[in-house]
Structure formats: C-alpha cells, structure tokens
Amino acid sequence: MDFDFSDDQQSLRDAVRRWVEKGYGFERRKGIVAAGGFDRAAYGELAELGLTALTVPEAQGGLGQSAVDAMVAMEELGRGIVLEPLAQTFIASRVLADYAPEAVQADWLPRIASGEALVVLAHQERKARYRLDVCEAKATPAGDSHALTAIKSIVPAGDQADAFIVPAQLDGRIALFLVERTASGVATQGYRTQDESRAAEVTLTDAPATLLTTDGLAALELAADVGIAATCAEAVGVMDQTLALTVDYMNQRKQFGVPIASFQALRHRVADMKMQLELARSMSYYASLKLGEAPAERRRALSRAKVQLGQSMRFVGQQSVQLHGGIGVTDEYIGSHYFKKLTQMEMAWGDTLHHLGEVSAHMQETAGVFA
User: Fold this and answer.
1) Count of helices and strands (H, E) across the chain
2) Does domain 7-114 have CATH number 3.20.20.70?
3) For the chain, which residues score pLDDT lower than 50?
4) Dist. CA 129–CA 124, nearest whole Å
5) What is the spatial distance between Cα 131 and Cα 136, in angstroms, rounded to a whole number?
6) Which of 182, 200, 230, 249 is the most buried (most CB within 10 A)?
7) Looking at domain 119-214, does it have CATH number 3.40.50.300?
C-alpha cells in the first residue's frame, strides 16, 4: 500500500500550518481564551481556508474530500492548539450526509461548508459516562415535527453554535434530531473547559426538533468514531509540537555549564517520547483509514486507536512537564497549555481504560499468541 500523502494533501498541510504559525499565535490564542474560548472570526478563517467544506459532499457545496484530508488538517490545528471546534464540523457533515433527509441536507450542509453555520453534537449526559446507548432525553411527536426535552453536558461551543445534533428516545429507541439554538425551549450556559476551549450545558424543554434518523444509535456511533479519529489526528499535532518545545528547551537550559540535552539519561527520555509519538501517529492513520469500514470493524478499530493515543498522550505530556521542570506548568509558558490539551483529549470520547475495555470485550476467540 502507498502511505505517501498526495500533492493536494501536502498543499493542504502547508496551508493550514502557515495559518497556524502566522494567524493563530500564542498571543492571539490567549486573547480568545480571555474572551471565552471561542472566536467566530477565527472559525471564519478556517472556512476561508476551505476546512469547513472539506468533508461536505460536492453536491452540497463542499469539497468532498476524504477522512485522510480531515486528518491532515486536524494534525496541523493540533500544533497550534486551536480552540475552534473544526472536528465538530467534520462530525456534523458526515452524520447529515449519511443519515439526514434530502431537505435537511440541502438546508444545512451548504451553510456548514461556507462556515455560515456551526452545527455541533450534543450527546453527553451525566449518567452516561462514555456509553452511547445510555440516553434519557425524550422526544415526542408534535404535529409534523417533534419536541425534545433533555439536558446535555459539555457541548462544544454550545452557547455559540447555530444548531445541535441531539440523540433522544423516541418510541423506545434512540433517534437523532436537529435542534436550532435559537428555537423556543432552548437554554445554554457556557463555560471554559480545562483545555481553555468553550463548552456549554444545553437544556431543552419541549424544544422543536427535526428528525434526522430513527436509527439513532448507529448514527451516534458513527459520529463518535469520526470524533475519535479527529481527536487522534489533533493529538498527533499536539504531541509533535510538545516534543519540539521540549527539545528546544533542553538545548537552551544549562546545568553544570552545559545544555541538559547533553545528558544521556534525559536523551533516553526524549527518545521514548519520540517512540510514543510515532506509535500514536501510525494508529491515527489507522483510525482515519478505518472510518470507511463496516460499523463493527470500524468501532473496534477506533477503540484500538484511542487506547494507543491515550497512552501516548499521557506519556508525552507528563515527560514534557518533567523535563521542563517548574516552568512546564506555568500559564505564562505555552508548554503547559499543550499539557492541558493532551490531558483533556485523553478523556474525550472515552478514556484509555474505557476503550481498553471495549477492545477486550470485542476480542474474537482467535485473538492472542496461540491463534
């Protein structure tokens, strides 16, 4: 198999990297954090780069690119620990394209592609932990539409988004709905998360909703897998930059009159960080390539990837802090923000232990060294 990136993918990587380096520096990011953790103008700049249209079908005004292209973009955004939730755009694009009625696709996908509309997934409930099949939200028929009652937590940019994709119980099974943020019965309470991005508690009280699909659990699993793949790719970018920052610091920091990068024991720790990064990179590629597989195989593959990424994120982040010393946890130094991002991503979409359990539960009888 050819694992080289195409010329178009390399051009995409270069364009996003240039924007991150020149248009989304640490000072701008600090300003966005101070303003609440989300900047519509920065999201608009992502749209100008074509990133919001990347995975939207061409028939709906998008570029119709693959999961690998999305992976390339997310890696580069990870280098700049960009706060705006482009991964949610990839999730919404895929779910709407695969499951929504034609009229809903025609209404929303062109606006998602242009960056005019931000649509995010609102699925997390307090009792659910990481299980997608636990859902207490209720939907009831209301004329030609439906009314939703629910409380959803940690919704990315929830008080800034234009609409939510919401799972809810309908006739004893999970269905998926689209709810506009400005609709009656919708209330949001925004806050900053640990990685300084913006999220919100979203409360729906008989809110009008458009039915996307009655096969809600399958659609929700697809959404989660797209989210995991995007998180894996972003994490590779974050770890890559974390390693670069660490090496640069070690070359500057002196002890006993020489750079600490010359100490053999510390060089071995950096080598271990590099090994974990490359393991994570290969599993990120694996995750994106498996998004087109049958649901059962796709779910197993994404859990495998998240296990390795979780282990790598924890190791690289912690080693970076240790090698930096006290400065590694100060807000004034950018390295601490990479560490916080890695810590939060390790728990996103299910932490390492959760996915290790998923991998174990879905092992076949032939698994193991004696197969």
Assistant:
1) 11, 9
2) no
3) 371
4) 8
5) 12
6) 230
7) no
